[in-house]
Amino acid sequence: MSTETRRVLTDKSGSPREQAERMFTVLFPREWRDSHDPWDFCPPVYETTPEDQAARQAAVLSSWDGVCGRLAGIRSPTLVVTGTDDVIIPPANADILARNIPGARLVRFRDCGHGLMYQVPAPFAAVVVGFFGG
Fold it and tell me: How many domains does the chain have?
């Protein structure tokens, strides 16, 4: 992720509403936000991640080597979902997962960000339920 995205994710200043407003800028693509109010799609925000926990998460993310070398050992059915405009976890990561997990199914939601489950809840739910055979 970019330095700016990381800054937004770790900035815990302001009220819960102000923090949520900042989060919306990285959860949803600008084009979607221009025509949708994220508050109409997301659950109410009553609490946020404390600053110390956000700092620990950021430290882990920047120091973790990952498990890419072990993905081929996954034997469970695997669904990989990504938004094509995700700036938090770039869609290329989903491609790597799907390519390296035997039999993985990759679904890309066009013009969606990291908050795709809020942007397109019905199509997202249909993919998940369909994957589980529902």
Answer: 2
The candidate with the shortest Cα–Cα distance to 86, out of 56, 108, 66, 67, is 108
Q: Which of 42, 63, 84 is the last residue of a domain?
A: 63
Give the domain range for residue 41.
3-63
Do 86 and 38 sit in the same domain of this protein? no
Q: What is the pLDDT of residue 54?
A: 74
Question: Within this chain, do residues 97 and 53 fall inside the same structural domain, yes or no?
Answer: no
Which tens digit of pLDDT belongs to each residue from 87-116?
999 999 999 999 999 999 999 999 999 999
For the entire predicted model, the pTM comes to 0.84
**Residue 17 token pair:** 């509403």
Quick: pLDDT tens for 29-48.
999 999 999 999 998 877 77
